[in-house]
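Duplicate of #3305? Posting structure anyway:
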């Protein structure tokens, strides 16, 4: 049996990460922080750093690295790269019905090794993010202490039926017992353990916690909900040249060189373009090399560019002020896509006067943009095929939605920062892909929404503005804007389009991702929304055009999506769900509107078919 499990990089970032339980052929394993499981394996994160201006603005001193593959490190494929730890350690001997942490006593007595061993499927977690083994001794002896002082080394597992209540856990000494049903449905003391923060060769570290813990199945999706940030490259920093010169070490060195030459004065907000000779001299001698700097092939690429493009990129970098938060970043992206859907995002190809123009990481050909009317004629959609896009996705932490969190109150955010040589690192990956951008044609402002459901969402949006704490009921990058009925309208339409596109394009439902945009004019109350549906692949080539090839048939896609929204196998029960403040959705279920949580940035929140069906486009 192999002692390793192959995991895709995107799966590690989008679904797993530190604190997650991975199901392997050798049993369940827990992913530790990179500083315990990856960096000690000879991995220097600085070699694989992902640096962009937005990352530095949002994350501060924390940096992002892409988890390398064995091939990138020149190591054999069978050699484990990211070490993990067994978790949970309690196992069930099916032959003797004994629950034990180390070895089955009956198997040891008979000198045999049980071939039917199952890792127990239950763990304990609390909304603060703590995770631990189930304290079986506490469960069984919750009503009365055991007759013997030392805790038993194993417990008897008596299964008298298929339900949890029919499974009894019994002490072999005092014969006290408890049913799994009783234990599962009540809170227990929390140990305060973060197993991902422990050294792999150390024992459990339990600091205690004032919250109550709950028993939950180790494979439950609510046990660990990743917190992700995704940044999509848009103008004015959309070329590879911008990306190279914008690396923090490179940019700082360039700023220092221009300041010494008297061409940059931040206090006076003055910037003069460098002469070509000055720039080439800096590039050849003073520009940082190695980790965090530029490789020889990257320097050669820059030298091949027309100096006019270099001068323009330098000015863009030194005059651009990255957005201070994710809401503003999303707004900047939205505006860039709206402009691109009209004017295009050049250059797609070609050659300048003295050399090739910089490769653009975002490409929209305005000749392929279409205007598609809705069936009811209330909205005309501008549909833009995004032929190339570049994204960076970072996992910054997780939440555990257990106990009260299941009622809509999110668990506490738990960071997954790892330290290496005095710097703090987060795992991420970059990808190239394609997509479809969709917004309203013309000025973009959404027509007024009708219906009681839209009115309830509008009340929630306004109430969250008066009481800002309410906007944090469900955390997200959009803040209170996620409560706006226009956001809910576009988000619900987006999920239906993802379902329709997956049928037509051949991409799986989980591989198509969405990004919802909303701009609200606080003065007039008008709102403008849009959707980016995209798919991306790890590597330099990205995907192969299967998504954008559907733009000429978008009328059919839109009609299919609306048809899916009009019928649900759970109706009328589904449509009878109505939004009220404190809830996260209205009429939405897995039979109609919910999709894979790897596709939805909002974790399937802020959806309501009633808002869409009352205002069909």
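Output from current build:
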């Amino acid at each position: 049996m192999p002692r390793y499990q192959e995991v895709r990089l995107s799966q590690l970032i989008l679904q797993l990460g530190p604190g997650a339980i991975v199901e392997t052929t050798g049993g369940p394993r827990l992913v530790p922080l990179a500083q315990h499981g990856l960096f000690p394996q000879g991995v220097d994160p600085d070699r694989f750093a992902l640096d962009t201006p937005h990352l530095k603005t949002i994350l501060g001193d924390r940096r992002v690295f892409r988890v390398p593959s064995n091939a990138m490190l020149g190591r054999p494929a069978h050699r484990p790269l990211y070490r993990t730890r067994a978790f949970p350690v309690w196992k069930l001997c099916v032959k003797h019905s004994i629950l034990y942490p180390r070895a089955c006593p009956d198997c040891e007595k008979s000198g045999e090794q049980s071939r039917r061993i199952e890792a127990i499927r239950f763990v304990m977690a609390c909304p603060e993010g703590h995770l631990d083994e189930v304290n079986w001794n506490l469960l069984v002896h919750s009503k009365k202490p055991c007759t013997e002082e030392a805790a038993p080394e194993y417990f008897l597992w008596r299964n008298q039926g298929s339900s949890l209540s029919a499974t009894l856990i019994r002490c072999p000494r005092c014969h006290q017992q408890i049913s799994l049903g009783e234990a599962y449905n009540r809170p227990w003391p929390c140990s305060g353990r973060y197993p991902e923060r422990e050294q792999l060769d150390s024992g459990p570290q339990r600091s205690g916690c004032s919250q109550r813990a709950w028993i939950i199945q180790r494979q439950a999706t609510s046990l660990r909900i990743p917190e992700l940030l995704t940044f999509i490259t848009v103008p004015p920093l959309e070329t590879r040249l911008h990306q190279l010169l914008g690396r923090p070490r490179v940019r700082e060195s360039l700023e220092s060189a221009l300041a010494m030459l008297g061409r940059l004065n931040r206090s006076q907000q003055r910037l003069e373009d460098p002469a070509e000779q000055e720039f080439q001299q800096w590039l050849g001698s003073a520009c940082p090399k190695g980790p965090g700097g530029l490789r020889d092939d990257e320097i050669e690429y820059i030298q091949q560019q027309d100096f006019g493009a270099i001068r323009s990129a330098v000015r863009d970098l030194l005059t651009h002020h990255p957005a201070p938060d994710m809401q503003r970043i999303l707004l900047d992206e939205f505006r860039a896509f709206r402009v691109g859907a009209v004017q295009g995002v050049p250059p797609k190809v070609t050659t300048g006067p003295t050399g090739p123009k910089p490769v653009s990481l975002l490409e929209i050909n305005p000749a392929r943009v279409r205007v598609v009317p809705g069936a009811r004629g209330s909205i005309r959609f501008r549909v833009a095929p995004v032929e190339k896009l570049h994204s960076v996705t970072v996992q910054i932490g997780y939440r555990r939605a257990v106990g009260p969190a299941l009622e809509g109150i999110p668990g506490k955010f738990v960071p997954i920062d790892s330290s290496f040589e005095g710097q703090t690192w987060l795992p991420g990956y970059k990808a190239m892909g394609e997509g479809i951008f969709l917004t309203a044609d013309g000025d973009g402002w959404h027509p007024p929404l009708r219906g009681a459901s839209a009115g309830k969402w509008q009340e929630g949006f306004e109430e969250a503005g008066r009481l800002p704490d309410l906007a944090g009921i469900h955390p997200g990058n959009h803040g209170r804007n996620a409560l706006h009925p226009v956001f809910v309208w576009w988000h619900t339409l987006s999920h239906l389009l993802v379902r329709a596109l997956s049928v037509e394009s051949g991409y799986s439902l989980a591989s198509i991702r969405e990004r919802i945009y909303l701009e609200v004019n606080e003065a007039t109350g008008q709102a403008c929304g849009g959707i980016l549906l995209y798919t991306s692949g790890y590597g330099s080539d990205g995907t192969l055009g299967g998504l954008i090839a559907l733009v000429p048939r978008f009328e059919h896609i839109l009609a299919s999506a609306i048809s899916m929204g009009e019928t649900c196998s759970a109706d009328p029960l589904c449509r009878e769900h109505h939004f009220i403040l404190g809830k996260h959705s209205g009429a939405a279920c897995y039979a109609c509107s919910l999709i894979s949580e790897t596709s939805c940035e909002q974790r399937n929140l802020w959806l309501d078919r009633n808002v869409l069906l009352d205002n069909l486009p």
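Confirmed duplicate; merging threads. The chain has a mean pLDDT of 87. The chain has 16 helices and 26 strands.
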